[in-house]
# Entry
Amino acid sequence: MSNERYSHPPRGVPSATDGPRAFKSSPPLTGVDELKRYHELQHVLEERWRLLRDIDAGPRDVVVIPSLSLDGFAASSIPGFHLYEERMLFTLMLLRHPRARLVYVTSQPVHPSALDYQIALLTGIPTAHARERLTLLACHDASPRPLTEKILERPRLIERIRRAIDPSHAHMTCFAVTHRERSLAVQLGIPLYGVDPELAHLGSKSGSRKVFRKAGVAMAPGVEDIRSEGEIAEAVADLWEADDSMRRVCVKHNEGFSGEGNALLDLEPIREVAPGEASHTSRVDAVLGHLGALRPVAEHESARGFLQGMERMGGVVEAWVEGVVKRSPSAQLRVNPRLELEALSTHDQILAEDGQTYLGCTFPADADYRLAIQEDALKVGRVLRDEGALGRFSVDFLTVERSPGKWDQLAIEINLRMSGTTHPLMTLQMLSHGHYDAKSGEYFTARGEPRCYIATDALAHPNYRGLLVEDLLDVAAVHGLHYRPWMDKGVVFHLSGALSQYGKVGVIAVGATPQEARDWFDATRTALDSETGATGVVPVHHGRTTWPAG
# Structure
């Protein structure tokens, strides 16, 4: 079954599949001309954004480019890389606005059953009415490269996007914004809602530390703007001398994703050159000779390859923060086109045993520290807003329990893009029509009832391979798992296209309390286990297999 059956622009708008017509490719703009045109287009973004939020406003078009345009990691290391483009299918719920149209572009066509499932989550609008206003386009290219790169290689596809929208009231939204997305927006002649790629340095590991310092937010001891092996050794020696109890350091590339681009260096094997035992020069030399023992988080990476990446990208050296009880919360922010800074959520991130690889999240973050990290994140957000940042971004933290209920918090990095915690929150907001209360750090439905969730992109087991999307939906129906809009509880699935080949699926389990959300999540895991004969379910992220018990 073809996705084209959902590609029906309103009457009077040429279809992306109309008969033959002359095609004219526009000459590429120069860098200066493109930048000038981009800033001209951005002047109308506020008006376009306002129309999208007003249910009674006139026509508005949204072009969704869910490209994982991220530097600093190997896309080929993520099983089913292009299927992660399905995470932004929550944007289909914008079709509840009766005059909104959506163009959603992917590397490969979205499975028809997965699409039916997403559209069925819409409430208050006939399904057929929503489908009439949805245009799906695909590159038919499953290579592990960013989607936007593939689109830019296909000028005829860009022309199809143009023909499916009215540029006078359209804008583009993306998972991440790089020069590729900016170039595509200019070619389409529409503004782009996201952080200008000229500000990307603020979200690098070195840039994050500089922003934290300017914001007056505590961070791990470290040194930024490191490139050479000699600079790494000097930084490690300096940090060790500042804290002679330090046992490990973390070396990070400026660009990284979900722990990719990080490496640990254990100092115990060279304890004989610890402060007080040897000279500074001897310490630097020993660290330099020990760099071959770096342990990159990325499984495909060697110590030598990691160090070469450091020379290419630059990065930071930070003291590894020790603690018996440590957590990795995150705070999400937005600067809207009116330049208003908003707190959107806090989450506790669920990490693999390496303490760095993202597996999933729970919402809200622990009450002991969620408002404190939100306050620090807002300080960071003000600095970013003053620098010109626009759109969604997040600040990751590390919290360490020093005594019962008392936590120290350190800012770790800034993500100038959507993240793994964006789509669960957006899905809940669009399903329940509720809001995040920044005063309490909780989420409330339209009925004023609190909601929590646990979410992952990869509930996985080898036995799940071979399950079709239809099988997943059947299992969920038989076991009573599907999201119940009249209760605002239950399970929402995403990334279902990865199930048959890779044996993994995304899950957002929603409940009135953290325990109820966990119960929905565990029930989903149990149902899939029982239907496939699986035991010891292990979500997989970047090839790793770890999941904490309930």
The first helix runs from residue 31 to 42. The chain has three domains: 3-193, 221-319, 326-545. The first strand starts at residue 60 and ends at 65. Confidence is low (pLDDT under 50) at residues 1-26, 537-550.
